[in-house]
Structure formats: C-alpha cells, structure tokens
Amino acid sequence: MNIPESDTRIFSFEFFPPRTPEGKGNLRTAWQRLSQLNPHFFSVTFGAGGSTQSGTAEVVIEIQRDSDIQAAPHLSCIGSTRQRIQEILQHYISAGIRRVVALRGDIPAGMEEVGEFRYANELVEFIRTETGDHFHIEVAAYPEVHPTAPSTEADLENFHRKVQAGANGAITQYFYNRDAYLRFVESCQRMGIHIPIVPGIMPITNYTSLARFSHQCGAEIPRWLAKRLEGFGDDLAGLQAFGIDVVTDLCRQLLEAGAPGLHFYVLNRAQPAITIWENLGLSESAE
C-alpha cells in the first residue's frame, strides 16, 4: 500500500522526567542538542498512576520557556480524577502549552480503583469538553496490537474511539516490522480514520534492556534481528553501529512509503537519534 504524503512531515522526540540532578543535566543537554534539528515538538512521559507528574510539568515548562520548540506533556488518566485533570490542563494553559499526548496509562500493581477515567477516549473527550480546541491532542496507536487487547479488531475499535473523541494525531508504539505499520494504517483508512499516524522509532543501543522493555510493552523484535543482536555479545560498539544501520533503514523505508513523520524514543540520549537523522539527510526537512 501507499500512504498519501502530507505537505509537512512531523518530527518529534520523546523524553522521560529524570529523578536526579545528574539526570536533569543530561536531559537538558539532550533536548538542547536535539532542538538544533528544529523538530515540531518534544514530548515528555508521565509515570504510571501519575508517579512522575510533577517532573513532567517541570520539564515541559522548562522546554517551553527556554526554546522555540513546542513541549507536549503526556497525560495519563488512570488513577486520576476529573478535577485533578482539569487542574493540570489549566496549569498547562497558563504555561502556554498547546499540545498534549493523551493516554490511558498503565495500571500500577496493587491498584484496585482505576479512577474516574477508564480509557483514553474518555480523557480525550474530557480535554475537548474542558478546553475546546486549545490543545493539539496526540494519542497512542499499536501496529502490533496493544498487549492487553483481546483482538486486533477490538484494538482498532479502541483507536477509532479515540479519534472520534477528538484526537488530532497519533504516535505508534515502536516496532521493527515496516509491514505491521503499513497494514495498521491501511486498516485505519478502511475505517475512515485519516489523522496522521506517526511511527514511533526506538534506536537500538542495548539489547538486554530493549528485549526486556519490548516484552513488557508488546513490541516484537523480529527473530532475525534478535539473533543478530544476541550475536554481538559484549561488543556494545558493534551492536550500536549495527542498530543504527537497521533503524536508519527502517526509517528510510517508512518515509519512502509516505509515513507522515517520525517520533523518536530517545531515552534522554541525543546522539543515536542525531546519527539516524543525519544518515537520513533530514537536516533541512523539519524546517
């Protein structure tokens, strides 16, 4: 299939709120370096049950204040109340934030009550009711199916409900199978979904941590790729060079197929994404 190309491709980078002074310094260095690429926005994650809520606000407000790049906080509705979400939205409006990423969020172990919101579409609908068109709302999409979805069809219906509730765009879970993304977009188009669905991209820097996280979030590492990565053993430099080549090739294929942009999960490290960006020749693309 071929995705209709947009006049403007959307490039963005995602960070997580650090917990230490050293981590804060590393993050500041990373976003300052990546801001030189002139992306459309930076997003900042939100811990399960709101565990990094204050850190998220701190980072996005710093970026919004000290750069020309839009900052998009993640909002997780699990374990929260309508009043609390309303307070957070008003805080972000006061800070000049115009973009958010609306998510259900993971349910923390031991949590019995999920709060006043059960699903992300309810959060999207609430944001629209409370703030109108103030926010550009991104939601999550899962080309390889959400790990808790009972079926592919149910997962697509869940995504459709988020779009109907008022989402402007979507960012996918990372993947290494181009066809999974293309088939997902094709299925969405058949359902009448035409918002930009931007591929999530995870640079490969450490196989052990990648395998563990992929198992948790339901992202598949193709067998051929897993075996190649396992084969590097303790050769971290060789693994990272190979990983850069693999992810660069994936990004190039996605853009050639008409993907509306790329969203990099950078884990607060700038260089892998910068190297992929340079390999793709994107220096002028995001201007």
Q: How are strands sequenced across the largest beta sheet?
A: 1-2-3-4-5-6-7-8
- Count up the helices: 10
Distance between the termini: 28 Å
Stretches where pLDDT falls below 50 for ≥5 residues? none
Classify the fold: give the CATH topology.
TIM Barrel
Q: Would you report the number of β strands?
A: 8
Task: Report Rg.
Answer: 18 Å
Let me know the largest β-sheet: 8 strands, parallel, barrel
β-sheet strand percentage: 15-25%
The helical percent reads: 40-55%
User: What is the second-level CATH architecture?
Assistant: Alpha-Beta Barrel
Category by helix and strand content: alpha/beta
- CATH C-level class is Alpha Beta
Q: What count of structural domains?
A: 1
Q: Can you put this structure into words, describing what you see?
A:
The protein has helices at residues 21-35, 53-66, 82-94, 120-131, 152-165, 178-190, 207-217, 223-230, 236-256, 271-280; strands spanning 10-15, 41-44, 70-76, 99-103, 136-141, 169-174, 197-201, 261-265. 46% of the residues lie in helices and 15% in strands. It has one domain (10-280): Alpha-Beta Barrel (TIM Barrel). The protein is of the alpha/beta class and 287 residues long. Helix 9 (236-256) crosses helix 10. The chain has an 8-stranded parallel β-barrel, surrounded by 5 helices.
In brief, what are we looking at here?
46% of the residues lie in helices and 15% in strands. It is an alpha/beta fold. It has a single domain (10-280), classed as TIM Barrel, CATH 3.20.20.
